[in-house]
Amino acid sequence: MIITIHPKNPQPKSIEAAASILRDGGVIIYPTDTVYALGCDIFQARAIERIYKYRGIDPAKANLSFICSDLSQLSEFAKIDNNTFKLMKRLLPGPFTFILNRSNRLPKLFRERTTVGIRIPDNPIARSLIEALGNPILSASLRSTEDIIEEEYFTDPELIDEKFGNQVDAVIDGGIGGIVPSTVIDCTGDQPIVIRQGKEKVEL
Fold first, then answer.
1. Contact (CB, 8 A) for 194 and 185
2. pTM as predicted
3. E strand residue ranges, the chain
4. Which pLDDT score is estimated for 72?
5. What pLDDT is attached to residue 200?
């Protein structure tokens, strides 16, 4: 099923339809400011397991991100010192993933993890979806580094639906997506470190 949503002015009814799928434990493919991604509600265990299985991910080693709507929501799930907060305020929303030490409010499924990846994408659809859901989305890039399928099957929503639609509950069509992932910044130590330069280069 495809749900078409305007990329700059998301229609509330369409956003609510997608949020309802997440609320009911569904998995979607949706646009971010970098690439199309798999997403589910962070509190839905079965949906999270589906994403692990789809991507062939070992839960203990999974590099998944929490997609948040704003810094206030983000701070519920991660520990942020003043310097990190200033850096995030400068760069977000944007194509960055911050690796942070987790807070005690992380859902039980993730309690064994010491860190969490956090994103606030510069994408109205993604942020509207999170606001409607009421909590972050667990996210994993649709494309893995091992994939050799043509690029268009990860960027064109119609082709994404053709190739992957039967494995998820909905594909959110928010226009043609990108192929360059987010820049990853590790903020778990004394100084932030860029561990992957992605869509937007940054000097720290």
1. yes
2. 0.91
3. 2-4, 28-31, 36-41, 65-67, 96-101, 115-119, 137-141, 170-173, 183-186, 193-196
4. 87
5. 83
Q: What is the mean pLDDT of each run of 10 residues along the chain (204 residues)?
A: 93 96 96 95 92 78 83 87 92 95 80 87 96 94 73 91 93 94 93 89 79
Question: What dihedral do alpha carbons 51, 53, 55, 58 form, nearest 10°?
Answer: 100
Domain boundaries, given as residue ranges, for the chain:
2-196
Collect contacts of 162-170 with beta carbons under 8 A, ≥24 apart.
Answer: 164/29, 165/1, 165/2, 167/54, 168/26, 168/27, 168/28, 168/29, 168/38, 169/1, 169/21, 169/26, 169/27, 169/28, 170/1, 170/2, 170/3, 170/18, 170/21, 170/26, 170/28, 170/29
pLDDT at 190: 87
Question: CATH second-level architecture of 2-196?
Answer: Alpha-Beta Complex (3.90)
pLDDT at position 145 is 61
In the block, which residue shows the tokens 């997608």?
Answer: 18
The strand pair at 193-196 and 183-186 is best described as: antiparallel
DSSP 100-146: EEBPTTS-GGGTT-SEEEEE--S-HHHHHHHHHHTS-EEEEESS-TT
